Hints:
The structure holds two protein chains of two kinds. By secondary structure, chain A is mainly alpha-helical.
Amino acid sequence: MSTLNKELKEELKAKLIEQLNLEDFEVSDINDNDLLFGGEGLALDSIDALEIIVLLEKEYGIKLDDPKKGKEIMQSIQTLADFIERKR
Amino acid sequence: MVAMPLFTSKNMSRVIKELSIQSETVILDGKIIFSSEEKELGGFLKDLYKHTGINYGKFFKMDYLSKLGFLSSELLLKDVEEIKPETDEVALIFANTSSSLNTDIKYQKSMEDIPSPAVFVYTLPNIVIGEISIRNKFYGEHIFLVQAKYDKNILLKYADSLFETTATKYALVGWLELSPTENYNVQLMLCAKK
């Protein structure tokens, strides 16, 4: 695992907590492979998914060109970080 | 929704509890149950949430109007054992004068950049009804009126009509005002059918 990727994941966790108002969570509560959506993990909803798309564009200048890939990309912090690194 | 005459002449509402939230102070049935030094609305609502002792992560995603209504409903419904969740017997009848303007303005500002979907979903005053309904699994009658000023009697008459013509047995009724400048005034009642 690259140091860059590790830093990015910690940054993403902090940004998600702030942007999605996840006040019950600390960065240390979120594991890299926790599911972001569904009943387990962070249990985010469809509005959160839209906020993550906005966050990707605002913070990293990355547009999600293919919405069909959204589910795969937003599976976990790990998959999000991998996507950002690929697109940078 | 069942068609109903506006309004019945019968007085069918019995007020069980009355709640007021103004100036960082919460009054339930004439007694101060909570006050905070926090002048900023966001901080006050967070303090009040902690005071209620509930654990509901979605609270933090709500806009201020929904937080005000949600916390009010929690305080009014607390320990009322005859009201069970998953019911169509509880009506929600709210009114205010500023609608959702507090959030509308925030959304308008967010449009200068990439607008926020999470803010957009609160740009209607009746969203607070949805939040309370989701929390309690209420499936009953509901309305959010935008009026020039608080008219308690009109809202109670509306409750009377629901009590007479629908399955409604209980109603949260009253004023849920939040101005664009974050002045707030909550005057809510929990009523039962006589």
